[in-house]
Amino acid sequence: MTYTPYTPPQQPLKPRRSRFGGFLKFIFYALVIVLGFLFYGSLKPRSTQNNAEIDELRAEVRALQTQVAAAPPVEIAAETIREVSVESEVTRVVEEVGPAVVTITAEKPADESSYGYWGFFFQPRGRSTSMGSGVIIHRDGYILTNNHVVDGADVFTIELANGETYPAELINRDQFSDLAVLKMDGPVPTVAELGDSDSLKSGETVIAIGSALGNFKNTVTTGVVSATGRFLQTDEGYYMENLIQTDAAINQGNSGGPLMNLDGKVIGINVMIVRGSRASSAVAEGLGFAIPANTARLIADQIIANGDFQRPYLGIQWQDLTPRLAYRYRLPVDYGTYIYEVIPGGPADRAGLQAGDILTKIGARKIDAEGSFYNALFAYQPGETVPVEFVRGSEVLSLEVRLGGSETVGTGL
């Protein structure tokens, strides 16, 4: 038997508490309590301030409610709350501006081709007539239309949308912009307002009104602005500049009628359609063009105020120069304006230009395949002094010319 001495179980040693740790805890809790009291105390006056502001706002709201209740009821016009859609806007514009659109009948005197034998006498067979459209732009009865609608005519009749007809007289016209102003002798139903064509953007909805084919009075078509700033060459050798292109249907008889936006403003005067090009046999649709309203306003205002529209005058007889002519006559440049006569005493004569000179530039405008002499000259106003570049022999020279305005000799240029 083996004796094993008894060993009592050992108790784990407990750490000895530190008096310093207890003191720290006491300080911490005391600080929390003090800060809590301070925070609560700081909230009490702010809460009182907020309550005062809320009470003040409530008082203002009650005062406004009292004023509204005492005010008389406001009647809202029906047009203020109308539903806006393209269809409804088109209808509104046509109702408002349609009466200002007129049909123009222009009678031309008989010419040699109109004469024939009637019985035993050789006499005119009758006067020829043409029809177009126009738009009233002034309370005094002034009507804006195209020059080609009135060209060569001496008797004019205006037919209103309601069928009433009145005589009219031609005030004046401008061939190069294809614009003319008539004045009707009768009551004016309404006046169309010219808008700002410079603010137009491609894709805007536009409305065309005119007498399609001369018989279908006040025909309405719609489309969009396809493009702006278009140039088209005319048979007379100059370009019509800055035209508005639209796909709104424009037919013969629509010439001179308005192209309008959805605000009811005239932003263009319909002038032509293009079916194809000289370089191709392809046929195009939806290529209509209008003269910008800003151009129309400038010319119409001058005609109404002064009775005419003055173009700058250089005082030359001239011929367009092409590469073919330049090659044939061995000229030093392919494009330009060949002067074959200088009008004595005119602006060109006073400046020192001579017959045989070839103009290549007027001011900042070149005379080349892209820019005609007309367009270069018409970029400036009568009375302006502009530099002119030209070729004389083998030299390229320049001089300044003060453009005239009232002279009209030969071509008027």
Strand content: 25-35%
Rg over alpha carbons: 42 Å
As a percent range, the share of helical residues equals: 10-25%
Number of strands: 22
Mean pLDDT: 82
Separation of termini? 151 Å
Individual helix count? 7
Helix-strand pattern: HHEEEEEHEEEEEEEEEEEHEHEHEEHEE
Question: Would you give the CATH topology of the domain at 94-110 and 125-306?
Answer: Thrombin, subunit H
Low-confidence stretches: 117-122
Q: What is the CATH class of the domain at 94-110 and 125-306?
A: Mainly Beta
> What order do the strands of the largest sheet run in, or round the barrel if closed?
1-4-5-8-7-6
**How is the main sheet built?**
6 strands, antiparallel, barrel
Which geometry do the CA atoms define?
extended
CATH architecture of the domain at 94-110 and 125-306: Beta Barrel
Classification by helices and strands: alpha+beta
